[in-house]
Sequence to fold (654 residues):
Amino acid sequence: MSANAGLDTFPKYLRHHAGTHARHAAIREKDLGIWQTWTWAAVEEQVKGLAAGLAELGLRRGDRIVIVGDNRPRLYWTMVAAQAIGAIPVPVYQDSVAREMAYVVEHAGARFAMAEDQEQVDKLLEIKSKVPTLELIVFSDPRGMRHYTQPFLRSFESVAESGRARLAGDPGWYDREVEQGRGGDTSIMLYTSGTTGTPKGVVLTFDNIIKTAQAGIDFDRLTIDEEVLAYLPMAWVGDHTFSFAQSYIAGFCVSCPESGATVMQDLRELGPTYFFAPPRIFENILTTVMIRMEDASRLKRRVFKHFLELARKVGGKILDRKPVGLGTRLHYLLGEILVYGPLKNTLGFSRIRLAYTAGEAIGPEIFEFYRSLGVNLKQLYGSTEASVYITMQPDGEIRSDTVGRPAPGVELKLADNGEVLFRSPGVFKEYYKNPEATAETKTPDGWVMTGDAGMMTDDGHLRIIDRAKDVGRLTDGSLFPPKYIENKLKFFPNIKEAVAFGDGRDYVAAFINIDLQAVGSWAERNNVAYSSYQELAANPKVYGIIQQHVEQVNRDLAKDPQLAGTQIRRFLVLHKELDADDGELTRTRKVRRRIIFDKYKSLIDALYDGSSSAHIETELTFEDGRRGLLKADVLVADAKTFPRGTDALPQAAE
Fold:
């Protein structure tokens, strides 16, 4: 669907679809095992009542309303209802602890909050006395709320009911409010993940989001018939674009899973045609597949391995419609019948026409694995400040080592230090209440500094190396891109997270987090007893497995003339999982390097001073918010490195 004149806000798009595609499914939700569906006409009726009800309670044009919870139709409707009356939705990560939520609510100056359920209400109640701007809390799910009697609490139903009463007396009120909206108005405020400090409120206009989302729709030929599963945090710009903005523009249906625990089952039931996931999701799915295959019979493992090797050789070529011999095609077709098709069906990928990954770099091996199975997985490079799109991969030009060409309407250039700069219709308006940061990021003529280091290929594709501030050099001058190395480590199902060190050092070393599910499954099959993550991580046999993975990464690095010097010489397996609640990861699962450097200094020192172990005492946060102290003696291991070239024999680590 092409852009429509006069449709410059999402409430206007909603009204358009309610008029032209009234009976077409707009959104679904799985509740108690049953999918419930709302048409575009039904959604508009819900939004009208909610918008009028919020206005009755005092939500005014320019006010901010915090929205917190899992992906739920009522929370998406709250966004549009707020926008319809000129208010600004501010989604918050649903797994934020109270202090993180308090920062966003206070910084945004939000007077209203829409909470999904009792859990989120409790967090808002905890911070309310510390955030005086917060006046009223509306809750969507009434379960557990019977005995909450605070006068500032309202149920979703009561708000909508009062709104419907208002509309009964003034039927034209809603349309008059919607008509006041303009493309240049603020559409939403999304907070960055806070990798390098406190989160910043990114102010995006309707023009920013609609123009970039429309460009993505045209580029990928999306239609009203797409099916999308909305399961990523509503506070993330990726979900806002793919699950909300493009749905409202193209008119396709979005489905909300029953819970975070049922996403994979719901994915299989739905069978989306258009799928988006950060690398972590694709890594987790691959880990699950590999664990299941380890438990299969010997014959099934042999068949799987045989056809997987074939897929790696020719699957990508077949997907890109490149020449492949007839015999090989028939062999691959047999693999589709016996392995690839059943596997995609089990994962819920059978109907996928287009899949995207973004948010951070994906390991080349993981990327090529999915494409080899016939899943049209692409990479895109984007940011909140760009309203997502900076680069995209055109059909027939899909590569694992680049993120594509500039997206439609985007200008791209590299600074002298290699930093990527862009300019586009999606460029954010400002960082809320932070003119200094805005000026540091956006030039007066609209160029935005991404903070990422990159290089352009001869044919115009962008290759992202790492965060510009993270790219370093070893003492011998070798380039050190930590994220690139970490992603190669995370390809292995047994490795969940990795942190590489080397800038200003003589060699590269790494922290490893094992994947408890994958390594736990191995331990069960091999009768290895353990009582905790800490005990399993310290097991010498586990160290042996991880060492094999590290050395395989070193073999791969040795093949790259530019990166052969960055092979990992020493590593350790951390005694605990890195956790967002402990401040070690952002809510989008990105490593907070500065905090890691400070918190684990004694372990980093041990990697470089020749120690065979190091003692560490780490404060951690339990699920109920309590804090505790974890003590451990962590082993430090050496890894073999390899001379430059593909056929070299290993050499002992120095």
Remarks:
- The longest strand covers residues 627-638.
- The chain has three domains: 10-181, 279-467, 472-638.
- The radius of gyration is 26 Å.
